[in-house]
Structures are given as C-alpha cells and as structure tokens.
Specification:
By secondary structure, this protein is mainly alpha-helical. Among the domains are: 48 residues, no CATH class; 91 residues, Arc Repressor Mutant, subunit A (Orthogonal Bundle), CATH 1.10.10. Helix content is 46%, strand content 11%. The protein contains 19 helices and eleven strands. A three-stranded antiparallel β-sheet has the order 3-4-7. It has a two-stranded parallel sheet with strand order 1-2. Strands 5-6 form a two-stranded antiparallel sheet. Strand 5 and strand 6 form a beta hairpin. The radius of gyration is 31 Å and the shape is elongated. The two termini are 52 Å apart.
Length: 455
C-alpha cells in the first residue's frame, strides 16, 4: 500500500529535485525489518510512483537502494561512535528505568553512561547526547525549531549484535548518498534533532529539512489506514485518473503563487513549486474536491482516450455482463453522454449496464419511488407511442411527451417510470438517447415486463 501522504511527499521531493541543477530523487527501501519486507511491496511502490509521474526511467530518479545492503557501513558507524566515546552500551530494562525515575514516560536517565559495558546480547548501544545547549533544526517550512539537548534522551542507535536501528541507518545512508534536503512528514520532526546530532557526530554537515503538515480527514483527524481510505492504489483502482491525483496531491498544503486555476498540468505546478511556500497548517484531504478534480480531467479527455480509459471497467471482473454481450460500437455511441456525467471511471459500469444485460438491474428504491399509482397506465401509453414513432431521440421524446399528455402528466414526472423500466434506475444517461441506442424491440419488451410486474 502506498499512502496518499507518502505520494504527496514523493511529489514534493520530485519537484524540488527536478528544479535543481543535477538534482536527484533518491528512492531508498528501508528494509532492515525482514518481517515487513516483501519484493512485491517494492514493485508496488515503484508502480505507484510511476502512476503519478515519478518514473525510474527519468534521469532524476535514483534507486531503488536497499538499506539492508549497506549494513556494513551502519555497523562501522556504530562501532566508530562507540570507540570515540560518543556512544555506550546499556543493559537497562524499561522497568528498571521507571523504578529509578518514577516516570513511566520520562525517557532514559543515562544510568549506563559510565559503566563501561561492552557489546553483548540484549544490550543497546545508545548515543550520548549533549548535556547542555540546544540543537536547532532549520526547517524550510516551519522555520527554526530548537530542541534543548538536556531534553533529548540518550537514544538507541544499534543492538548488541551491531545491527543498526532506524535513526543511525537512516543517517548513514543519507550521508553516503549525499542527501542535501530531507522532505518528509512532520511526525519525523522530533527525529530531526537526533539525526542532526548524529550527522555532526559523524563529522558531516546536516542536510536541510522540510517537515510537511499532517493530512487530515473531514473530522480533522490524521488520515489512518484503519479508518480512512488512504492507499493511492485504491483510488486509482476506482477510476481516479493519475493526472488528477497528481494535480490534487500537489495542492495539499501548497498552492501556486499566481493564484491561477487549480486544475493545471503537473509541469506548471512543478515550475512554481517552492517548499518554503508549503502551509504549516494541517492539509484537509477533501474527497469531494478530489472527485470534482477527477470529473474535470475526465471531461477534458479526448473521446477516444475516454473510451480507452474505461476499458478496464467494461471487462471482467468489473463488468456484470457476459463478454459476448458487450458491443464496443454501442459503447462508443453512448460514451460522449457518459463522459459528461461521471466523476470516476468506475461509475461507467452502472451507467451503461442496461445496454449489455438481458434485463436491467433494478434498484428497489428507484422502483418504489418511480412506480407510484398510475405508473402502469403511463407505461402502457408510452409503449403505444414508441411502437410507431421514428426511432431517434427527438421522435422518442415527442412520443413520451404525447403519452404523458394522455395521462395528464408533465414530461418530467412521466419519464420516471419509463426510465426505471428501461434502465433500472432513476438517474443515468439522457433517457431519449438511451432508448434510441437500446432499440425499439428491447425497449418495448422492458416496458411490458415492468407493466407485468406492476399488475
């Protein structure tokens, strides 16, 4: 799963890298936790990145690099910090620390600093943080953030067997890959102070930092995979266009300085992007707005491109009809009607299924709403008219209007039972054009079936 928050971070990184002379976008797979490392997940990340325009074939793209392949450098760095007295081994258990300090969440108290312990199973190598002063993280979004060193506990950097923990492995990899700017979520801001200390302890100049605001849902709670739809793949699978997703994600917490239209190609957004302009406030992931964006992108497609884009939803497993019942030429006829109405490509199936199924899928709520007393008479009158009119949308409309007049109904009310009888729903493609494409024989058969059901 590729989180939409990760996708936004990737796009911001990509924009900065492409703006810079000889800029590089580095994809690193932090795979030291083997239980959470599967080859198909890596492929999923690369595929998701490619969907939003971050392609591994682009010269700006580097990687993927695997953190596990740099284990020797991580171990060497850990041992070097120990040899220089910048780190020490600790055998304290959490319960012992709590017993000493009386603070369940008070952090480590430095008990093992001077005990002279060496590496052994069950021991943790801790980084010795300064006792005074402060570490200032110059953040390009949030400004200078100061961390009092006395408040930074001596944090773990490696296990007793020499295998690194995240903070050290991440820092060593950044150093070796010459990372100059780290753009990531604000949940890592507290780590930045610790990592900056590690950079300095390793004799290196820390990178610039930029911590992005949290993305929240409509309840203004941080997006969570347990509660919200957060996977980029899920949105794409529903029929959100990659270009629309890219456009929308770029505007989560940032906007172009020219205050122009929000709907615009990625290249224009990239040209204007400045990480310093990212808003410090939380960014609201507005699904309704994303849906509107996607609808605009769908309507902007060339008709043939729209037909091509719909194909996955016109075939198994999405399509409810038999493959032999699908007629591409019929779909091409109604495609322009659907293109102006749907907001997500996945909606195409329900809009056209009445054309390719032997019988319409009847929505019971729609049936109850449309088939009021008198509906059977309206259907009978419509059948009489449609049996002899010229078969085109204009004549079909005139025929149903004439039938409505015999029942003392306006066209709007008269259409409802006819639409439900033919399509199974109260909303959908324009009715008269739909009837024309369906054909006289099938139209009359469905009207008769509905009358029979009503009587």
């Amino acid at each position: 799963m590729f989180h939409v928050g990760g996708a936004r971070s990737a796009l911001f990184n990509w924009a900065v890298a492409r703006q810079a002379t000889d800029g590089r976008f580095v994809l690193r797979i932090e795979d030291t936790d083997q239980a959470r490392n599967k080859p198909e997940w890596v492929e999923g990340i690369i595929t998701a990145l490619a969907a939003i325009g971050i392609s591994e074939t682009d010269p700006t793209f580097e990687g993927p690099y695997f953190q596990s392949s740099n284990a020797a450098a991580h171990t060497a760095a850990a041992l070097g910090l120990f040899d220089e007295g910048k780190a020490y081994y600790c055998d304290c258990k959490r319960e012992q620390v709590i017993e000493r300090t009386g603070k369940p969440d008070g952090g480590y108290d430095g008990y093992c600093r001077e005990r002279g312990l060496t590496a052994a199973a069950g021991r943790l190598l801790r980084f010795r943080t300064p006792d005074s002063g402060e570490t200032v993280v110059a953040d390009r979004i949030r400004g200078a953030t100061a961390f009092p060193n006395a408040a930074i506990e001596d944090f773990g950097i490696a296990r007793g067997d020499g295998s690194p923990l995240f903070l050290l492995a991440n820092t060593v990899d950044d150093v070796e890959q010459k990372i100059t700017l780290v753009i990531r979520g604000e949940e890592h801001l507290t780590n930045a102070g610790k990592q900056q200390l590690l950079w300095e302890a390793l004799g290196q100049t820390p990178p610039a930092w930029a911590h992005l605001p949290v993305i929240v849902n409509e309840a203004r709670k941080k997006l969570s995979k347990r509660r919200d739809k957060v996977a980029l793949e899920d949105y794409l699978a529903e029929g959100y266009l990659p270009a629309a997703m890219t456009n929308y994600l770029m505007l989560l917490g940032w906007g172009p300085r020219d205050n122009g239209t929000e709907i615009r190609p990625y290249a224009e957004l990239e040209a204007q992007f400045d990480i310093a302009d990212v808003n410090k406030a939380n960014a609201f992931f507005d699904v309704a707005k994303l849906r509107a964006f996607n609808g605009d992108y769908i309507r902007a497609l060339d008709p043939s491109a729209f037909i091509d884009a719909c194909q996955p939803w016109l075939q198994a497993p999405h399509a409810p009809w038999a493959a032999t019942d699908f007629d591409p030429s019929v779909f091409a006829t109604v495609a322009p009607l659907a293109q102006s109405r749907i907001a997500v490509l996945g909606e195409i199936t329900a809009n056209v299924d009445f054309l390719f199924l032997p019988e319409p899928v009847v929505d019971e709520a729609a049936w109850s709403k449309a088939m009021k007393p008198g509906a059977a008479d309206m259907l009978a009158a419509a059948a009489t008219q449609l049996a002899s009119v010229d078969w085109n949308a204009e004549a079909i409309r005139a025929g149903i209007e004439a039938a409505a007049a015999t029942q003392g109904l306006k066209l709007g009310k008269a259409q409802a039972p006819v639409r439900v009888a033919i399509t199974g729903r109260t909303i959908g493609l324009p009715l008269f054009e739909s009837i024309e494409v369906l054909g006289r024989e099938r139209t009359l058969a469905r009207i008769e079936a509905a009358r029979t059901k009503l009587t």
